[in-house]
Amino acid sequence: MEQLKEYESLFPFIEELIVNEFNINYAKKSLPKGVAIFHEGDSCEGVPFVVKGCIRVSKIGKNGKEMSVYRVNAGETCILSVMSILTNEPYPLTAIVEEDAEAFIIPYEEFKKLMGASSDFQDYIYKTIMYRFQEVIKVMDEVIFHSTDERIIKFLLKYTENDGDMIEATHDKIAMEIGTAREVVSRLLKEMERKGWVHLSRGKVFVIKRTELVKKLEKLV
């Protein structure tokens, strides 16, 4: 466990494990960008605790369209892998490494042992479950109760601060993030470009008149 001490600032429960001399097996892995660590329907053999990089968890429909559900960043774990282990159910979504990542993996039996032995570990897991459920509810709320126009403007404002700021994202990626079709994103962005609010380039969106986007959003909400 001493080898995990360097990650104590990311995962506070590690301190209790070291103090109480818990002896658990784990594997440290490097996860290159683009690798799928879980596919929908996979059995879950262990829980990843990310110490570097980012893993994107998404739903891929039968038509091939994809929607991001949440991301797992440094200091976080994938709560669906936790639920799969606790319920003995297959992994329900797809998890792909979005940025080169590193993680330590706690195997099935070791994870269950920790849940019964470490109060700090339990507390971390339960808080993560609550946080992720709130995040998923927020995504559902956006898709169900907010128009596509509103969602795409929120996306543009989220990743910019000033006129002229650039977002590096394809129309496919934006569609995946806001839960709609690429064709819809392309149509709305071209409409904004005609109004002079944005400028479109291959794989990039330049926000030209951010204040106009803010005004439009205020009318939509």
From TrEMBL:
<dbReference type="Pfam" id="PF00027">
    <property type="entry name" value="cNMP_binding"/>
</dbReference>
<keyword id="KW-0238">DNA-binding</keyword>
<dbReference type="InterPro" id="IPR050397">
    <property type="entry name" value="Env_Response_Regulators"/>
</dbReference>
<protein>
    <submittedName>
        <fullName>Crp/Fnr family transcriptional regulator</fullName>
    </submittedName>
</protein>
<dbReference type="InterPro" id="IPR000595">
    <property type="entry name" value="cNMP-bd_dom"/>
</dbReference>
<feature type="domain" description="HTH crp-type">
    <location>
        <begin position="146"/>
        <end position="211"/>
    </location>
</feature>
<keyword id="KW-0010">Activator</keyword>
<dbReference type="GO" id="GO:0005829">
    <property type="term" value="C:cytosol"/>
</dbReference>
<dbReference type="GO" id="GO:0003677">
    <property type="term" value="F:DNA binding"/>
</dbReference>
<dbReference type="Pfam" id="PF13545">
    <property type="entry name" value="HTH_Crp_2"/>
</dbReference>
<dbReference type="InterPro" id="IPR036388">
    <property type="entry name" value="WH-like_DNA-bd_sf"/>
</dbReference>
<keyword id="KW-0804">Transcription</keyword>
<keyword id="KW-0805">Transcription regulation</keyword>
<dbReference type="GO" id="GO:0003700">
    <property type="term" value="F:DNA-binding transcription factor activity"/>
</dbReference>
<dbReference type="InterPro" id="IPR036390">
    <property type="entry name" value="WH_DNA-bd_sf"/>
</dbReference>
<dbReference type="InterPro" id="IPR018490">
    <property type="entry name" value="cNMP-bd_dom_sf"/>
</dbReference>
<dbReference type="InterPro" id="IPR012318">
    <property type="entry name" value="HTH_CRP"/>
</dbReference>
<feature type="domain" description="Cyclic nucleotide-binding">
    <location>
        <begin position="10"/>
        <end position="132"/>
    </location>
</feature>
<dbReference type="InterPro" id="IPR014710">
    <property type="entry name" value="RmlC-like_jellyroll"/>
</dbReference>
